[in-house]
């Protein structure tokens, strides 16, 4: 008899409208989510966590999946990182050509 290990089901992929809701929320609440103050202070970290939780609720209300605030924050990090890579490649491609 073979024992099959328990597999955690994959989470659904992010839909375009979820990413748009995420982007819009972050645009409107950038200071609350990424503001610096004294880093590590409990109250500031609490405000940031509450803001990410609110963002998850906004995405859910926009017809998205129920996602945790940590998953939402990680998605933003991934989207932001991909955008930076894209623009860096674009700039590098434009600078390497002979434009004289």
Describe the structure.
The chain has 100 residues and is mainly α. It has a domain at 16-27 and 38-94. The protein contains 4 helices and no strands. It has helices at residues 16-28, 30-34, 42-61, 69-96. Helix 1 packs antiparallel against helix 3 and helix 3 packs across helix 4. The protein starts with 15 loop residues before the first helix and ends with a helix.
Outline the fold blueprint.
Blueprint: H1 16-28, H2 30-34, H3 42-61, H4 69-96
Helix pairs in contact: 1-3, 3-4
From the spread of the alpha carbons, the general shape counts as extended
Mean pLDDT: 88
Identify low-pLDDT runs: none
The SSE string, one letter per element, is HHHH
Number of strands: 0
Strand content: under 5%
Judged by helices, strands and strand pairing, the structural class is mainly alpha
Oligomer: single chain
Number of helices: 4
Summarize the entry for a quick read.
The protein is mainly alpha-helical and 100 residues long. The protein has a domain of 69 residues. It is 66% helix and 0% strand.
Question: Top keywords for this entry?
Answer:
100 residues; 4 helices
